[in-house]
């Protein structure tokens, strides 16, 4: 394993904890999605559990502990996550963790617990988890990972030391992406950077899973509605099958870019620099006030994503408003 370029300062701080024998009992690692927080936590866990870490703090890779870690069978590394994607971490899972922490670590170094995403603990689980922080177990380090630390109870945050993984500058991201040798990145680095909002690993995922092609198809449908070539209800039916979170962001990014086009913003300042020409053309046929109203609707829609709202109806409302906006000029 190696440290990602934008995590060097974070790693120096983590290594300092160990060399100074000041490893925190609980550490909250936060930052935007796609910055490698999970990878950083894993590397720190491996370093703490390794019998002979290297000079740079990374695990040696060949001691008994490292071999167990590689096989994912180390008894002193506990990973806690929701049983199902999108579900909460339950009080039952926390009670199971508490039961395990009553036992001593099996090796002579640390025991490490990684909870991710920590903000998905429900209220009962979070309250039960406080016991881990108020009554620390022997030689145990708890690493909490979260994209949304504000969603954690203040009682938990106040008992953790914090490590924020910052978003790297654009040059660092683009340079790193070009080194990944992924075919879909060729000629699309700037577009993927904007699509991922500057998060390197998210951009790489998008390159691997064809997200740019999907975005382009959705944008074509968006343009077709503006030109009265396709009906919003039909497009909404198609979009219902696409993950709603990235789709809402794509639509929002098109609106923001259209607003920027009205202000003659340079292409490299857009979320979608590769779409500047069609976005500029669209911005010229709608009123700026209407774009802001549609933007408000999208902000509300983003807040509704985690509710029981009918996603098809939500997209249909957005697309109808967009269609009306183009008719009203």
How would you describe this structure to a colleague?
α4 runs parallel beside α5 (123-134). The model has no long low-confidence stretch (mean pLDDT 91). The chain folds into two domains: 5-164, Rossmann fold (3-Layer(aba) Sandwich); 210-328, Zinc Finger, Delta Prime, domain 3, CATH 1.20.272. The protein has 15 helices and five strands. With 329 residues, it is α/β, with parallel strands linked by helices. The N and C termini lie far apart (56 Å). Strands 2-3-4-1-5 form a five-stranded parallel sheet, with helices on both faces. It is elongated, with a radius of gyration of 23 Å.
The CATH superfamily of the largest domain turns out to be P-loop containing nucleotide triphosphate hydrolases
* Secondary-structure content class: alpha/beta
Helix segment tally: 15
Count the domains: 2
Give the neighbour order of strands across the main sheet: 2-3-4-1-5
- CATH class designation of the largest domain: Alpha Beta
Mean pLDDT: 91
Largest sheet: 5 strands, parallel
Straight-line N-to-C gap: 56 Å
CATH topology term of the largest domain: Rossmann fold
Identify low-pLDDT runs: none
Rough outline: elongated
Give the fraction of residues assigned to helices.
40-55%
Element order: H for helix, E for strand:
HEHHEHEHEHEHHHHHHHHH
Q: How many β-strands, per DSSP? A: 5
Please compute the radius of gyration using only Cα atoms.
Answer: 23 Å
Q: Give me the CATH architecture of the largest domain, please.
A: 3-Layer(aba) Sandwich
Beta-strand percent range = 5-15%
């Amino acid at each position: 394993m190696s440290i990602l370029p934008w995590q060097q300062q974070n790693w120096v701080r983590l290594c300092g904890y160990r060399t100074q024998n000041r490893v925190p009992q609980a550490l909250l690692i936060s930052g935007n999605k796609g910055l490698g927080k999970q990878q950083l936590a894993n590397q720190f866990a491996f370093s703490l559990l390794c019998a002979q870490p290297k000079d740079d703090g990374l695990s040696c890779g060949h001691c008994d502990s490292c071999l167990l870690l590689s096989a994912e069978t180390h008894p002193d590394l506990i990973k806690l996550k929701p049983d199902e994607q999108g579900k909460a971490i339950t009080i039952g899972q926390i009670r199971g963790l508490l039961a395990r922490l009553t036992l001593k670590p099996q090796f002579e170094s640390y025991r490490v617990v990684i909870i991710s995403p920590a903000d998905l603990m429900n209220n009962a689980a979070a309250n039960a988890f406080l016991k881990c922080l108020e009554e620390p177990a022997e030689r145990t380090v708890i690493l909490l990972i979260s994209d949304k630390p504000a969603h954690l109870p203040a009682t938990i945050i106040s008992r953790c030391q914090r490590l924020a993984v910052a978003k790297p500058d654009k040059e660092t991201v683009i340079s790193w992406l070009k080194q990944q040798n992924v075919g879909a990145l060729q000629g699309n680095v700037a577009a993927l950077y904007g699509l991922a909002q500057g998060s390197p690993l998210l951009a790489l995922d998008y390159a691997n899973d064809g997200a740019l092609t999907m975005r382009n198809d959705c944008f074509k449908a968006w343009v077709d509605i503006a030109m009265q070539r396709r009906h919003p209800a039909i497009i909404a039916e198609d979009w219902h099958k696409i993950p709603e979170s990235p789709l809402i962001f794509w639509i929002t990014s098109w609106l923001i870019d259209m607003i920027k086009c009205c202000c003659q913003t340079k292409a490299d300042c857009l979320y979608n620099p590769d779409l500047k020409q069609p976005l500029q053309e669209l911005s010229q046929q709608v009123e700026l006030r209407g774009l802001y109203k549609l933007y408000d609707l999208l902000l509300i829609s983003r807040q509704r994503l985690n509710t029981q709202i009918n996603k098809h109806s939500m997209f249909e409302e957005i697309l109808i408003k967009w269609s009306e906006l183009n008719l009203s000029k």
